[in-house]
Design a protein that fits this description.
This protein is mainly alpha-helical. The protein has one domain. The protein has three helices and no strands. It is elongated and about 35 Å long.
Length: 76
């Protein structure tokens, strides 16, 4: 199961590179969840059956990708 989690996470981190970054001025979380949702849509675009572990990894990877993107924006 840990393998599927890792695959899901890696796919989300790669897919997040193709998602636009649109922060909202109020930091209300809307931009974060839009980013995570778009990332998961890209990961799940294939018509394949995935396990819960894969989905958990993909979700964690999408959130991690958002946090990286925010850290990069703050550093600039």
């Amino acid at each position: 199961m840990a393998k599927e989690y890792g695959v899901g996470m890696r796919r989300a981190l790669l897919a997040a590179q193709g998602v636009g970054f649109e922060p909202t001025p109020h930091l209300d979380g809307d931009a974060k969840w839009a980013f995570v949702g778009q990332t998961l849509d890209l990961v799940l675009r294939r018509d394949e059956v995935v396990s819960q572990e894969f989905l958990n990894g993909a979700r964690e990877g999408a959130v991690k990708a958002w946090e990286r993107r925010i850290a990069q924006e703050i550093a600039q």
